[in-house]
Fold this protein.
Amino acid sequence: MSANPAASATSESAEPARNLLVARDVHKSFGQTEVLKGIDLTVTEGEVVALIGASGSGKTTFLRCINLLEEFEQGSITVDGDPVGYTDRGGSRRRLSEGRLAAQRARIGMVFQSFNLFPHMTAAQNVMLGLVKVKGMAKAEARSLADHWLARVGLADRADHHPYQLSGGQQQRVAIARAVAMDPRLILFDEVTSALDPELVSEVLGVMKDLAKSGMTMLVVSHEMLFVRDVATHVVFLDSGRIVEEGEPHAVFKNPKSDRLRAFLGRFTDIIGDITAR
Amino acid sequence: MTYNFNFSVIWRQFDVMLWGLGLGLLLAVISLAIGTVIGLVCGYAFRTNNKTLRGLVWGYVEFIRNEPLLLLIFFVYFGLPAIGIRFFDKYESFVITLSIYAGAYLTEVFRAGLTSVPERYVEAAKAIGLKPWQTQLYVVLPLTFRIVLPSLSNNLISLFKDTSLATAIAIPELTFTARQINANTYRVMEAWLTASLLYLATCYLIAIALRQIEKRYSVIK
């Protein structure tokens, strides 16, 4: 790590593998229960990092800490050189103002398990809201950008539909378009296929695969092990609030070192067969 | 039962009755609009951590809900001038009273409405970088209005019926005109029957119209 935090932010194009996300010793408790017990993670530009683990392992909580939808008590998260959520002034840790937080969140995309499309807006309006109100884009320009991204996720003909007129898979693709259109540094995906009917999962994963190919930096909480194996560049296994194992997916899936990961993967192998087989 | 109905005197003054009806509607709509603003502000006040503010709002809501409306009308129209506040004519005085009255009920409506906007939409708004006030303006408020629309409709109908109390301070709305016709012609049954039917038809039409609007805007499934 650089001694001068500004140095990493200014090295825009010099280094090819820029660290986009650096999490150091992140701790988080819900009341008495500590759910994150010191998470260290570095994501470089263009990487697709998958967070896997049993429910309750802390992966979603960690994801939500990155754009401060959850507070964390200790440690630091830096996105593109910018420390997220808190500032250290004279040794005391202070939460940033809501305005600063909003500006930081605008650079971090997020896609939710339950889509969370604004129900009173059409697909295009959902995509446009951030462009117009946060980025200050003119309506016409925002509309054409929304149309562009809706077409990219295969929904050119659904731009003027309301969420309730769309299937779950379509809603989730609109949500992805909404996140991508903001041109974020990285996008967080929080179990985005878990609420979908099985036959709709692949259309969403397909869109995510395209995004990954286009070089988007992605942090993905997922139970779709085949997707993780094929698309992730790096997989991180969490167990009770700690990173237990991480590495290149094929290697990690083939030779799990910990009993925990072996047991976790075993549950999937029962359903989909050998994960490491082609 | 030897009452002979004679509606001819009613027809001769039917336009006066219709004007009275229109006036009542206008008073109700204005009061609903002002009451909505009061209800929204107080609904938000209920959600702050400020105990004094919440206590004040609670006091206001409980006071209004446990006083008869007619008494409030007299209080504002006769009471305020007695202590030196004489800026309002009877229309303004009535609209102020009915707005404050509606505001108390609408405070409850909006408090519940604001609470029932699912948190996940607020999170989605935060996640795209909207500031807190933008999140309220573009996401929470539009959803709240859609959620409370049926309550607003019911309140409008209630308020319209409550405008009949304006008779007590000689505002020439429908009930007042009916009473005038009654007093001038002694056609007791005809006057009150016509007024009743006009109230019934109007309330019914409002309900039907508003249900169409509710259908149009109920986008949260």
Observations:
- Chain A has a mean pLDDT of 90.
